[in-house]
Every structure is written in structure tokens, then in C-alpha cells.
Design brief:
heterodimer; A: 260 residues; Rossmann fold; five-stranded parallel β-sheet; 43% helix; B: five-stranded mixed β-sheet
Chain lengths: 260, 571
């Protein structure tokens, strides 16, 4: 067997006919009926398909906007593709794309569909839908939520304009990032944060320790033990009490030191 | 890792093997107290596997190929057997394959359950199982070049994309029918959920004589990715993306394989949180399957209702993990989130609502006479066929075998939780559907039990020692059955070899036996009953062998026929 040659094949998407582009503009402008969608799973993990399902069925129910999934590409206005486009799905996907009448809108769905996602450079995928067929709308997410799906459709059908809110911060002369909770000794802070994370995980741990810092810094005359007891009584959560007591113990030991 | 001799389970099997094949057992090592790896000579491999499989109530879990030329100059094959006799344990039979001949005797003629595993080893490593009856490609696409084996360490960069070798599909479908049959291809694209797969039904009139299928349309190369680009601690998130429906069980299986290999004890609270989420995933998956079962027998109102209720399980997942799918909750040694009072309360409320709604829906579903009539006696998986092919989950439990990883090999928090086992002897679609509906309520009970008895303490271990070249198994009971992961750690904090096997992988090979003897209109419901990744195709082509002509009927027509069973499109 030969060792690998660096002959990485590249795929080029089918190009779109000029007439189709013109027709598509008309379609977007003049569509006054339901849109028919044909789904292609070109190598997804099903999470995207689950969310498409969720968008279709009661609760989110996109059919109320006239968006309907059809069983054949021959009826489709929109082709919805999920997955990183595997080698084995290239031909079936192309056949389905060719079978759909012009004008058609192609939506790349999910992180894998948009760019190949976590699989973008692997040997058995082409790395995104747009490597094989031309894409009009990208709906990112892993997987996109049903709300994102509906929003993506609205974009694709020209019902909404893309709204991007970007701000750009330029650092001013002498500007400095402030330290949070400067009154709490640094070593103690780290020890508390670590213990909170160990006990309650990243997200809830951070929230709990943040509240704890606020309690420590409050200066309303009452001793800290009372303030904590008050807080715990208000929250009424035995698990939270367990974690906060651990943090108290670290404070009582002084600087905490290690997390063990 | 040293495992104390007294705590070991499964020593009886090893002793039996040594007695049966005295000069063939070369080595024995223990990864955990219930995982043993036995190295045997190449020639003795089929007999060793057969002895454990049929002689000692072993079931084939997975076949792992590994390129160990950098470690010991050989390739290796591992046959992982789940021993479910008097002692419950995993015994792995290992044999070395020399790199000059690349050959080893095939186990498949003696144990049919090894067939997919051996075909995969052939694809990915170019090893030749001598005597393997089915030498078609399994995993790699038709347009992949011959003589390029992705998982060999020296074969190729993981990014290499070879030129396309063919513009047509070249897979040969096997038809075991004795007389002339009509061919009904289904797939690979389909309008319902899930992955593509291509089916060929060989029919005589309305009766299915045989069936064959081509899957792996979504082979992406995950194992190679895990062994090259990613660190071992990132793979828990990759494992989430093996399957969008039961990704979390894969993630737990992977994390526990590494934890087993390194001897990490997961804190009890983390294990309980994992258990809760595993059951949340089961709630979701079973509701999905029950909904689709409604759909395929023409009960669309039920389908919509199950999908409406299913949304609550998605809300539950979002509440507990922050995402509706691909939970990304596991770390090696624990989980990333705790369950506080707020989540605890809302979870109880949601599962209470689920229990009420699903009880009502199932009552409606099962008292619909049509339902029983469509499911009873359909898609029979005979007990012996099940024994030969090692299917898993509700599929095997519907054929009278007591197999459930949660009970046989407790993992996560299952050791201390009462788990009900539902086994039925009907061997048909009805049994599998009923088992799922019973397991649904069990899952709710398990979640409540876990919430009531969640132990205190941390959710995460920090600070353990990473040791290269250790390996072990991790296993879970996914909604569809046993998921099993075999991981060997390597240098540079990367996996040396990762083999993950999803539940459906073990269920597919026996599907052809379920399809045989049924009518075409039952095919979708039979395929759906193993809860694979669903029934197929945008269109169905009927090829009549006698007339040599082809008519194309839309899938919708096929599905309509399954639901209404009038006006056959085949006539």
C-alpha cells in the first residue's frame, strides 16, 4: 500500500444558471403561496433533523406560516440540507438538487451544513453543503433551535432583513480592566471559585460564588455568618446550603490554599 | 492498572478458556474488576470466541481493530464479549495479526454476530478475515479508492480527500431468494427524520422474500478525528455528536471508558446527574419512536400528540444542560452542571406532566383496535436469530432475552437504583413497542428516585494522572440498546485508538430476518420498530425481474400504502 500522497481532492459546487438567479429574485418577491421544503440529510447526526421535526410539529408548527415538507424534490421550492456532506451522500444529494425545479433556494442547516462544523477537514466529508451545491441561506447552530429555524426561513424567503448588531471597542489611552471584588484577597478568591466549580460545575458554580462574594463585601453591620444564614433562608435550597457552607469553611481556614 | 484478584468478576470464563484451549491462551490482563482482556493465538481465535459466545452465554458487543505496529509490531483485533451467564462481566478476546500477511481466521462462520465488525476491520485496516462469507464494503463509500485504509497509522493524513473513483454507486445487494423476485429499492433519501440508508426489498407479489441494505451514508471519520486532531478530553463533546438522538449515552460511554482506563472514580453526585440525563434522553427517544409508530400505522393524530408531548422532554434537557440536544455535559471525571432547587422543582413538575399526558395517549393508542392488528405478529425476530446476531435494547428484549446493560453491568448511578426489566416473548413489533412504553414510565420513576436521593459532594474530580497506552471499555444502555466504547490512550494527550459502537449497529444485521415473510406494506413499521435511524427514501423504484422494466412510485405513495393498505402501488 502506498503512503498517502498529498493529493487532496477538492469539490466544486455546481454553478447556478443565470436565468435561475433571475427567477429566484422573482420567486422571493412574488411568492404568494406556501413554500415546499425538501430535506436532505447529507451526513448529519440527527440532532438537526430532530430540531427540524420540532419546528414542524405542534408547539412551534411552521405549517402555520405555510412552510410544508414535501416527499419529493420535484415539488420543492426550498432544499434544506443538514450534515457535513459526506462522500457517500454527494451523489444522492446532487441527484435531489438537480431534480428540484428552478428557481430553488438552498438552505444549509446547522454547524455541519454551514461549514462542516467539527468534521470540517475530515477524509470522508467535503466540509459543508456549499462545497457541492450553491447555498443561499445559512442557519447556524449545533443544532439550531426551532426559533432559529423559523427565523432562518423568514430570512430565506425575504420576509425579514438580516439584523446584525456589531459594536467595535477601541481601547482609550490609559484604559484599564478593573479587577472584580478587589477587597477579597486574590488567593482566597481563586480557592473559592475552584471549590464552587468542583461542587456545582462551571455555570452554577460561577453564579454561586459570585453571590457569595457579594455577601462577603456587603457592609451593613451584621456579621457575615448572619448575612449568609439570611441568604440561605431566603433561597431555601439544601444543595445550595451545602455548597455555601463549603465556601464558608474555606474562608474560615483563612486563605484556602488548595482545593482539596 | 492493578485490580485486586479478589474483586475480579469473570475469572470463571478465563479459567474455562484456559482449560478448553490450554496452549492457546498467551496472556491475561484486567482493566477493571469486570473487564478482562485475554490474548490468544491467531489460530485459536474463532474457537475461543465461539466457546465464550455459545458455551458461556456471551454476547458479541463489538469487534475492534487496532494498528499497534508502533507498540508491538502487529495489528490487533479485539472481540468484546458481554458475558451474561452466572457472572456478569466483559471478556475481550485479543489476537495479534502480523503485518506481513495481514490475515486472521474469520470468526463469522462460527459466530454470525461478528460479521459487521469483521467487514469494518477489512475496510478500515485492510486486514483479511480468512473465510469471511461477506466481503463487501461496509463503512467506506463506493467512490473510495481500494488500498487506502483510513485507520492505519501510516496510511494518510486525516485531512486527505482522495479523488473520486467512480460516479456511480457500485454496491452489490445480496438476494437469498430461491425463486424470481421483484426488487423494491428504498432510499437513500427519505422524508421522515434521520439518516439516509438504502434498502432493497426482494418481493414476490406483496411478500418480502429477502432484504438487503446499504448504510453508512453518513460515515464522517470520527474515530480518525479523535485519534488525530482532538485531545482525549475534548472527545466527550465529539461523542455527543455521534448521534443527535442518543448522543449523551455515547458521551457517558466514552467518558467512562477513559475513567475506567485511568482508574478515576466519578463522584456519586456526578454519576447521579449523568443517570438523570441518560433517562431524560430515553424519555425523548421513546416518545419519538412511539410517535413514529403511530405515524406508520396511519394514526397521525397520535403522531402529532406524541410530538407535542415530546417537546416537554426537550424543555427538560434544556433546563438541566442548557441545550436541547447535544448536551455537552460530560467531562472526564464528572459533569459541568449541578442540579439546584430551581431545576429540581421544575424537573419534577415536567415529568409529572409527562406521566399524565403519556398515560392518556398510550391508553388511546393501545385501545385502538387497528394498532394491535397492525403490530401483532409482524416483523418477527426469532429467539434463536436474536441469539446468533446479538441485537440489543428493546429489540432483543422483545424476543425474550433478558439483556439490559443497566442491570447486567451497572454504570453511572445504576448500581444503587431499582431498574425494572421488561421482557416479552412476542418477538414482534408489538412487543418492542410495548416494552418501550413500559420503559418510558420506568425512566420517570428513575428520575424521581435520583432527585430524591441525590448524594451530596462535588460533581467533578480535578487532578488525576494521565497514563498513555492504557485501555478500557465504557458502556451504557442507550434507548436503543447497548452503546460500547473502547478507548486506548496515547501520547500527547490524544487517543491512540477509539472505537465506538452505537446500538443500532448491532440491530441492523438481524433486520433482514425480521423483514422476511412480511408484506411490503409492513416494511416501514418493521424498520421503525428497531428504532434505527428511520424509514427511508423520497421515492421507491419497483423493478420487476420478469418484465425487466422499472416504475417509479413516490415514497409518499409507499407510505400511504403502509398506512391505508388499499390500492397497492405494486399492481
Amino acid at each position: 500500500m502506498n503512503a498517502a500522497q498529498p493529493v487532496t481532492a477538492t469539490a466544486s459546487p455546481e454553478s447556478e444558471r443565470e436565468q435561475a438567479t433571475r427567477l429566484k429574485r422573482t420567486l422571493l418577491h412574488d411568492i404568494r403561496r406556501s413554500v415546499y421544503v425538501f430535506r436532505i440529510d447529507s451526513g448529519g447526526c440527527n440532532a438537526c433533523d430532530i430540531e427540524i421535526f420540532a419546528a414542524l410539529t405542534p408547539v412551534f408548527d411552521v405549517e402555520r406560516f405555510g412552510i410544508k415538507v414535501v416527499p419529493s424534490p420535484r415539488h420543492a421550492d426550498v432544499i434544506l440540507c443538514t450534515g457535513a456532506m459526506t462522500r457517500a451522500m454527494r451523489l444522492p444529494a446532487l441527484r435531489a438538487f438537480d431534480a428540484a425545479p428552478d428557481p430553488k433556494i438552498v438552505i444549509a442547516y446547522g454547524a455541519c451544513g454551514c461549514t462542516g462544523g467539527i468534521f470540517h477537514d475530515l477524509y470522508c466529508v467535503w466540509g459543508g453543503i456549499d462545497k457541492i451545491i450553491p447555498v443561499d441561506v445559512y442557519i447556524p447552530g449545533c443544532p439550531p433551535t426551532p426559533a432559529a429555524t423559523i427565523y432562518g426561513f423568514a430570512l430565506g424567503l425575504g420576509l425579514l432583513d438580516q439584523k446584525l448588531k456589531a459594536t467595535h471597542h477601541v481601547e482609550a489611552e490609559g484604559e484599564q480592566v478593573t479587577v472584580t471584588h478587589p477587597r477579597i484577597p486574590y488567593g482566597l478568591r481563586i480557592a473559592l471559585e475552584r471549590e464552587a466549580r468542583r461542587m456545582a460545575g462551571y455555570r452554577q458554580g460561577r453564579e454561586i460564588v459570585e453571590n457569595f462574594f457579594i455577601l462577603m463585601e456587603q457592609d451593613d453591620g451584621a456579621p457575615i455568618r448572619e448575612r449568609i444564614a439570611d441568604f440561605l433562608a431566603r433561597e431555601n435550597d439544601p444543595r445550595l446550603a451545602e455548597i455555601v457552607h463549603r465556601l464558608e469553611e474555606i474562608c474560615a481556614r483563612g486563605n484556602g490554599g488548595t482545593d482539596q | 492498572m492493578s485490580v485486586s484478584t479478589e474483586s475480579r468478576r469473570g475469572t470463571g470464563y478465563v479459567a474455562a478458556l484456559r482449560q478448553k484451549l490450554p496452549s492457546s491462551v498467551l496472556d491475561e490482563s484486567w482493566q477493571t474488576a469486570e473487564q478482562a482482556t485475554i490474548t490468544v493465538t491467531r489460530e485459536a481465535l474463532p474457537e475461543a470466541v465461539e466457546t465464550l459466545y455459545y458455551g458461556h452465554n456471551g454476547w458479541m458487543s463489538v469487534v475492534v481493530g487496532s494498528d499497534e505496529r508502533l507498540l508491538n509490531g502487529h495489528f490487533a483485533v479485539y472481540y468484546v464479549l458481554s458475558m451474561e451467564g452466572s457472572e456478569k462481566s466483559y471478556v475481550v478476546v485479543r489476537a495479534l495479526v502480523p503485518p506481513d500477511t495481514m490475515e486472521f481466521p474469520s470468526v463469522t462462520p462460527k459466530v454470525p454476530a461478528a460479521v459487521w465488525g469483521e467487514r469494518e476491520v477489512r475496510d478500515m485496516f485492510g486486514l483479511r478475515p480468512v473465510g469471511l462469507p461477506d466481503e463487501r464494503r461496509l463503512v467506506l463509500p463506493d467512490d473510495w479508492p481500494d488500498d487506502l485504509y483510513p485507520l492505519r497509522k501510516d496510511a494518510m493524513d486525516y485531512r486527505l480527500r482522495p479523488e473520486v473513483t467512480t460516479e456511480t454507486e457500485t454496491y452489490k445487494f445480496i438476494n437469498a431468494a430461491k425463486s424470481e423476485t421483484t426488487v423494491v429499492p428504498l432510499g437513500p433519501l427519505h422524508i421522515t427524520s434521520d439518516e439516509p440508508g438504502h434498502f432493497r426489498l426482494f418481493v414476490d407479489g406483496e411478500d418480502i422474500i429477502d432484504a438487503d441494505y446499504r448504510l453508512f451514508y453518513v460515515h464522517r471519520g470520527m474515530e480518525k478525528l479523535a485519534e488525530t486532531r482532538m485531545g482525549y478530553n475534548d472527545v466527550t463533546f465529539l461523542a455527543d455528536r455521534i448521534c443527535g438522538i442518543c448522543g449523551f449515552t455515547h458521551s457517558v460511554a466514552y467518558a467512562s471508558s477513559v475513567e475506567n482506563a485511568l482508574g478515576i472514580n466519578v463522584p456519586p453526585r456526578a454519576a447521579t446527574i449523568r443517570t438523570i440525563l441518560l433517562e431524560v434522553e430515553r424519555l425523548h427517544s421513546h416518545l419519538l419512536n412511539l410517535g413514529l409508530a403511530c405515524h406508520f400505522v396511519g394514526f397521525d393524530t397520535g403522531f402529532m400528540h406524541f410530538f407535542r408531548v415530546r417537546e416537554k422532554s426537550m424543555e427538560l434537557a434544556e433546563l438541566l444542560t442548557g441545550s436541547r440536544k447535544t448536551y455537552a455535559l460530560n467531562l472526564i471525571g464528572g459533569v459541568r452542571r449541578d442540579i439546584l432547587a430551581e431545576q429540581n422543582l421544575r424537573t419534577r413538575q415536567l415529568i409529572g406532566e409527562l406521566r399524565g399526558e403519556v398515560t392518556r395517549l398510550l391508553d388511546i393508542l393501545l385501545s385502538t383496535p387497528n394498532m394491535r392488528q397492525r403490530l401483532e405478529g409482524i416483523g418477527r425476530l426469532e429467539k434463536q436469530v436474536a441469539r446468533d446476531y446479538s441485537p440489543v435494547g428493546p429489540t432483543v428484549r422483545g424476543s425474550g432475552h433478558h439483556r439490559d446493560v443497566r442491570i447486567d453491568h451497572p454504570y453511572a448511578g445504576y448500581g444503587s437504583i431499582p431498574v425494572g426489566q421488561h421482557v416479552m416473548d412476542g418477538c414482534d413489533v408489538l412487543s418492542r413497542t410495548l416494552i418501550r412504553s413500559q420503559e418510558f414510565f420506568d425512566s420517570i420513576t428513575i428520575i424521581e428516585h435520583c432527585l430524591d436521593n441525590a448524594p451530596p459532594g462535588p460533581v467533578l474530580v480535578e487532578g488525576f494522572t494521565y497514563t498513555p497506552h492504557r485501555f478500557a471499555l465504557g458502556y451504557t444502555e442507550a434507548p436503543r440498546g447497548e452503546d460500547i466504547h473502547w478507548s486506548m490512550l496515547g501520547d500527547n494527550q490524544k487517543l491512540y485508538r477509539w472505537r465506538c459502537r452505537a446500538a443500532s449497529y448491532n440491530n441492523w444485521p438481524s433486520l433482514r430476518y425480521m423483514l422476511r415473510g412480511n408484506t411490503v406494506s409492513d416494511a416501514p413499521i418493521i424498520v421503525a420498530s428497531i428504532d434505527p435511524c428511520y424509514s427511508c427514501t423520497d421515492r421507491v423504484t419497483v423493478v420487476d425481474v420478469r418484465k425487466r422494466d422499472a416504475t417509479v412510485i413516490p415514497y409518499k405513495e409507499m407510505e400511504r400504502y403502509c398506512r391505508e393498505r388499499t390500492n397497492s402501488p405494486l399492481k
